[in-house]
TrEMBL record:
<dbReference type="InterPro" id="IPR018762">
    <property type="entry name" value="ChpT_C"/>
</dbReference>
<feature type="domain" description="Histidine phosphotransferase ChpT C-terminal">
    <location>
        <begin position="78"/>
        <end position="177"/>
    </location>
</feature>
<protein>
    <submittedName>
        <fullName>Histidine phosphotransferase</fullName>
    </submittedName>
</protein>
<dbReference type="Pfam" id="PF10090">
    <property type="entry name" value="HPTransfase"/>
</dbReference>
<dbReference type="InterPro" id="IPR036890">
    <property type="entry name" value="HATPase_C_sf"/>
</dbReference>
Length: 203
């Protein structure tokens, strides 16, 4: 019997996202065919098209963040920025990805989960800055109105357990990803920002 529950969960997430991408893509293709056939633009078609785009962006992001990070494959810089850009296109939070090199899948998975955590800490919007120098990474979330003092953030910083929900499950997944990659972050908090720094040996 396969006993690695975390691996099974990630594979299930990968499968769900993979299977949902095709029908969402079919909806977008169908809309394009309608436009080519001469159907006049309308608010209804715009709404359907925007919803399909948003769904595709979320699936692409969650497929990496929640999915299986096994293997030695890498994401190109273009792939990473496309996934992040599409996911945050219509959100109040901006992600400033200041990384110019390709990255291992396991590192990208961890970073996308951490970005989701920082997004939760910026309920009114703000900026998430991601930078790296060699093997040292720094993520900073900033805004005048932050929520980095909630129980799940306290648990993330201290390592204590907290009550999970569907809205905060990415915190536990981020902790598991960091543990798997031997990441021990350092934290710095001010009244309007939270910064974490860590090193990774992934190549």
């Amino acid at each position: 019997m396969y006993k690695d529950i975390e691996r099974i969960s990630s594979l299930i997430s990968s499968r769900i996202c993979h299977d949902m991408v095709s029908p969402v893509g079919a909806i977008r293709n169908g809309l394009e065919l309608l436009e080519m056939s001469g159907v006049k633009p309308s608010l209804e078609l715009d709404l359907i098209n925007q919803s399909a785009q948003n769904a595709n962006a979320r699936l692409s992001y969650l497929r990496v963040a929640f999915g299986d990070a096994g293997g030695s494959s890498k994401f190109s810089q273009q792939e990473i920025t496309a996934i992040i850009g599409a996911y945050f296109e219509n959100k109040r939070v901006r992600v400033n990805w200041q990384v110019t090199t390709d990255q291992p899948r396991s590192v990208v998975k961890t970073l996308l989960l951490l970005i989701m955590c920082f997004e939760t800490g910026l309920p009114y919007g703000g900026e998430i800055l991601v930078r790296t120098a060699d093997s040292t990474w720094a993520i900073t979330g900033s805004d005048d109105r932050t929520a980095f003092d909630t129980p799940h953030w306290d648990a993330m910083i201290t390592g204590q357990d907290f009550e999970l929900s569907s809205a905060t499950v990415h915190f536990e997944l981020a902790r598991a990803a960091m543990s798997l990659n031997d990441i021990n972050p350092e934290w710095g908090k001010t009244s309007g920002a939270l910064r974490m720094q860590f090193q990774t040996n992934a190549a």
